[in-house]
Amino acid sequence: MRSLAEFCPESRAGIRGVLFDIDDTLTTAGRLTAGVYAAVEALKNAGLIVVPITGRPGGWCDHIARMWPVDGVVGENGAFYFFFDEIEHKLKQRFVKAPGERESDREKLLHVAKRILRDVPGSAMASDQPYREADIAVDFCEDVAALPIEQIQRIKSIMESEGLTAKISSIHVNGWLGSYDKLSTTKLFFQERFAIDLDSRKAEFVFIGDSPNDQPMFAYFTHSVGVANVRNFLDMISNKPAFVTEAACGAGFAELANALLSTR
């Protein structure tokens, strides 16, 4: 990983959009500060496409798509994308799976969740689970005492043994039925929303994140960035970001935003 200072001005000037994780990338200690929110708004006002790519639930993403200064949001690690249509003045939702599939998945996901809570002492369902559409999120440090890495890996292993796709974020282990991820649905969003083929134009976009579930994005984008706290997970990340900020969490996001805006 290179210092963000090595992200050359010419490349920064060519960036058309900023994609970003939320927890511990945009937020700091679970909070979205005024300065960081203002940085998101400044990027949007500068004409950039601005899209959170998060593991957070559908209920949160409904709010984000409606009320944040963003062009849309990819949620639940790729289960869907939402955006607010300014012309129709209406929230648009696009799920990867049909309603019937999501309904049939829920029974299996509930079974796996019960097994994890039984077999991994100290784990709990994430407090945002009631607002989820397509996955389960097991909390290992957000609202519970932090679990050791062995227990976090145990949660992931149980999910995978039950046929789920499992990803570790900075606060949760998320599991779902399906092969989609943050990257596949981000590509779908850009193709369907903006008629942009990311495979041919990915150098025009930057992604910033902090944890193992961001690996597909780190590996794919030429201009991928980790906030400084990504170093906490380096032994779990085989595809590391190209650049790393000096500051951690939201301050690291603001560092990137300022670097991009300085070329405008």
What does this structure look like?
- Helix 2 (34-45) packs parallel to helix 9.
- The chain has a six-stranded parallel β-sheet. It has a four-stranded antiparallel β-sheet with strand order 7-8-10-9, covered by helices on one side. Strands 4-5-6 form a three-stranded antiparallel β-sheet, sandwiched between helices.
- The chain has two domains: 8-96 and 180-261, HAD superfamily/HAD-like (Rossmann fold, 3-Layer(aba) Sandwich); 99-176, Hypothetical Protein Ta0175, Chain: A, domain 2 (Alpha-Beta Complex), CATH 3.90.1070.
- The chain has helices at residues 9-13, 34-45, 58-67, 99-119, 149-161, 182-194, 198-201, 215-220, 249-261, and strands at 2-3, 17-20, 49-52, 73-75, 80-85, 90-95, 124-125, 136-139, 165-168, 172-176, 205-209, 223-226, 243-244.
- The chain is globular.
- It contains nine helices and 13 strands.
- The model has no long low-confidence stretch (mean pLDDT 97).
- The chain has 264 residues and is an alpha/beta fold.
Q: Which consecutive residue ranges, at least 5 long each, have pLDDT under 50?
A: none
Rounded average pLDDT: 97
Can you list the strand order of the major beta sheet?
1-13-12-11-2-3
Structural class: alpha/beta
- The CATH topology annotation of the largest domain reads as Rossmann fold
Number of domains: 2
The run of helices and strands is: EHEHEHEEEHEEHEEHHEHEEH
Which CATH class of the largest domain applies here? Alpha Beta
CATH superfamily of the largest domain: HAD superfamily/HAD-like
Largest sheet: 6 strands, parallel
Strand content: 15-25%
User: Any idea what the CATH architecture of the largest domain is?
Assistant: 3-Layer(aba) Sandwich
Helix content: 25-40%
